C-alpha cells in the first residue's frame, strides 16, 4: 500500500513538472509563432544586411516569416491573379529592410510627375511611426507614409501639406518574373523630430525590443489612371478604411527581435 502511495505521489510530481515546462513563455514572441496578432510583425535581426537587388536570396530572409497584405482598404476586391501580396521584415542597427512580393498582372505608372496623383499609380506604400505613438501624421512627421513608385521614388506629404520626395530615405530595387514582382527596400528610420529644413535629422536607435508602428500597402492602378484596388496589411475598423495616410493610431506593431 505504501509503495502504491509513493508511486502516486511521484506520478503527481512528474505531471506537475511537465505542466510547468509547458507553461507559455512571458518573453518576446518569436517570428514563427502563431500568437502574433493580425497586422503585427516580429522582425528578426539580420547578422548581415541584405543586398538591395530585388531577389531576396540573402540568408537573413530565411529567418523571417511571410505575412500577408490582404485587407481591402479601397476599391473592389481583386482576384488573386490581379493582386496578391506578402512581406517580410528584418533589421540591423542602421536600417529596416523590407522584402515584398506582389502578384500584379499589369504594372502601371501613367502620371509622369512623381508629385501628382502618385497614389493613383501602382506603388508600394510603407507606413512607419518610429515611436509607435499613433495620432495624426497628415501634415507632420509624427509618422511617415512612403509611397514608393515603380521607379523607386518615395513621396509623402510635407509639413506644408504639399507632396514632397523623400527618396533619400530609402534604397529600392524591384525585379519581375512574369506577374510576380519582388521589391527590396532598405529604410533609414527618422524620429518625429524630423524637419525638411534640417540637413542633419535625428535617426532612431534600432535595437532588440524596440516597438514601432507600421503598415504595408499596395496601390493597384492597372492603367486606369486611378486605384482600382488598395490593399493593406492591417484590418482597419469602420467603413472608412483609407485613413492610414492620416492616422497612425490604426498602424500595427513592428517589434524588433534578436
Polypeptide structure, described:
- By secondary structure, the protein is mainly beta.
- The chain has one domain (28-257): Immunoglobulin-like.
- Helix content is 8%, strand content 33%.
- It has one helix at 2-21, and strands at 41-44, 67-68, 71-75, 83-91, 96-104, 123-129, 144-149, 154-157, 163-165, 170-177, 180-187, 211-220, 229-232, 252-257.
- The strands form two sheets. Strands 1, 3, 6, 7, 8, 9, 12, 13 and 14 form a nine-stranded mixed beta sheet that branches. The chain has a five-stranded antiparallel beta sheet with strand order 2-4-5-11-10, with no helix packed on it.
- The relative contact order is 0.22.
The unreliable regions are 1-33
How many β-strand stretches?
14
- The succession of helices and strands, N to C, reads HEEEEEEEEEEEEEE
Approximate strand percentage: 25-35%
Distance between the termini: 53 Å
**Architecture, CATH level 2?**
Sandwich
Tally of structural domains: 1
Mean pLDDT: 89
Largest sheet: 9 strands, mixed
**What share of residues is helical?**
under 10%
Overall 3D geometry?
A: globular
CATH hierarchy, class: Mainly Beta
Structural class, judged by helices and strands?
mainly beta
Q: Compute the number of helices.
A: 1
User: Which topology does CATH recognise?
Assistant: Immunoglobulin-like
Radius of gyration: 22 Å
